[in-house]
Design goal:
about 80% helix; single chain
Length: about 90
């Protein structure tokens, strides 16, 4: 059980770091971000969690709010998994 929690926490951490990097590239690249292969890689990795969060939010939500909300959910999940691991 300890290994499963640690592995899940590592995946959540990787997704959160990819979201941070994608946001940083969004700020740096501007309109040319879709031509950046690294940005596209981060967009591919974070597509599923961003899609899940966007289904929970209203339709007219801007993409940056979806990304920020997704990061907040991943951060809360990461902290929760850390607490669960420490109590086992």
């Amino acid at each position: 059980m300890f290994f499963a929690i640690a592995a899940l926490r590592a995946v959540v951490e990787m997704l959160a770091l990819c979201l941070l990097a994608q946001g940083l590239l969004y700020v740096i690249s501007g309109r040319q971000r879709h031509g950046n292969p690294i940005y596209r890689l981060f967009a591919l990795i974070t597509h599923f969690p961003r899609r899940l969060i966007s289904m929970l939010l209203p339709l007219a939500t801007p993409p940056w709010v979806v990304g920020l909300s997704c990061f907040a959910v991943l951060f809360i999940l990461w902290i929760s998994l850390a607490l669960a691991r420490s109590f086992l």
